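FYI - complex with 1PR, inputs then prediction.
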Amino acid sequence: MITLLDYGAGNVRSVINAIESLGQKVKVVSGIDDLLSAEKLVFPGVGNFGSMMRILNDKNYVDALKDYLLSDRPFLGICLGLHALFEKSEEAPDTTKGLGFVPGHVKKFDINLSVPHIGWNGVNIKKPSRIFNGLRGDEKFYFVHSFYVVPDDESDVLTTTNYGVEFASGIQKGNITATQFHPEKSGAAGINLLKNFLEPGSGTKAITHVLTETRLSKRIVACLDVRSNDRGDLVVTKGDQYDVRENGNVRNLGKPVELARTYYEQGADEITFLNITGFRDFPLEDIPMMDVLKQTSKNVFVPLTIGGGIRDYTDKHGRKYTALEVATEYFRSGADKISIGSDAVLIAEAYLRTGKKTGNSSIEQISKVYGAQAIVISIDPKRVYVSSPDQTTHQVIKTEKKGPLGEEYCWYQCTIKGGREGRDLDAITLAQVCETLGAGEILLNCIDKDGTDSGYDIELINAVKNSVTIPVIASSGAGCVEHFYEVFRKTKAESALAAGIFHRKEVSIPEVKNYLSHKVETRLLKNNQKKA
Ligand code: 1PR
């Protein structure tokens, strides 16, 4: 039996799923007694250091946790569960103390790169450890964080990783191990590492592979637009410039759970589900969609993002739900990140009207509880051409692809409700406002390019990427492997998303990654994920 510490503010579903996939049972801590009697403790953390420590204090868990650590019983901390072991964190610069088991502190990234550090990066193993048994040492693991630990004593460092700075990405002190990366989201390598913790065999992995510097991979994201077809079945569909109907029927390109599993096994670095009719339906009543997420998260161990319909909602009985409640339900069902589309536009418009943060918007509320890294803003823009910048108040770009009347400038108009309604807001401003309000990533679609197979809108991606510091996922238009190379060569986007070419089996994820190898840093699968 594995004991799991869920302090109530984080998303622990993924960790439970990963442990259960290894045939182990999980007992979630519900009181001090569970901590006192635990034999193997896993502490996954998500959110904010200060609120985590406050909750641990309020529940009187701190002394029991310290006793557990001092007794040297097996412990695995993940992400914030690593930070908790330290004395203090810049994330809570007041007097909030950590557990102080490892001397040192937690520091915010102060680097010239996008923060949060999101994606797949390597580790440099600094000392032999059994948790790396069966691994080569050059695998990549999934990171998502804005702060990193700085141990006082170098001998506590298990691994380091480079991201603008070389930081400790794992620590080990006796039986106490903690990682900055998420093994539960790191595909076969992460599951292998978890297995080593749960069922220790004999021996320790010697250091066989020494990297000089680890590198963050560009991510390849498979996107599944999901909705009910006219017969009421939930299907993966795909539009041409957002029109998903062909001869009057909703295009059916497969079943969501099966397709997600296939893409995971092929090496997708992330899977995104967009509930594309979520703007008009209420997600909490969409049980099949929740089931898709639950089923998928049971055997897909890479990050899952879900979007569609995340906003405040009043149901037919007059009961009000906040966007935070909707998001929480998605997290509980297995999502790692949620994406907000239409509501983000309305929030940004309100912010621009008043210039004030209310703290009440879905972006601010979800960010406060789950952290910026859990919120993706999905932007659905389309080009509006103008012959000169003074014809509009919006942020314009000079374009090489001229308009129908030879216009040399355009702005990117935000839309809501799946592209049905254009708004008086441009994509660059939307991205900037959402970053200010606490979003952690931008999913940048482009209605003009969607489903066209003509390549990404490089001008749009550069314009948005250069105006924010959070990571950007380039989306819409991928038609061949060269388009992925082009987007990574010509822009600083951290990820490239595609849908149609994968669903229609025109290009596979391994083909994309093989083409990119030696050109762009990617996560290559040396073993099939199935062998996890
Ligand atoms: O507004 O918060 O309810 O969220 C709704 C979400 O559903 C938004 O993220 C919006 O982008 C998405 N959506 C709504 N309608 C459609 C549609 O197609 N009719 N899908 C839609 C947008 C997602 C794209 C697509 C890429 C790549 N499609 O990400 O996957 O363009 O396609 P390609 O590689 O085939 O070119 P809310």
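The mean pLDDT is 93. DSSP finds 16 helices and 30 strands in the chain.
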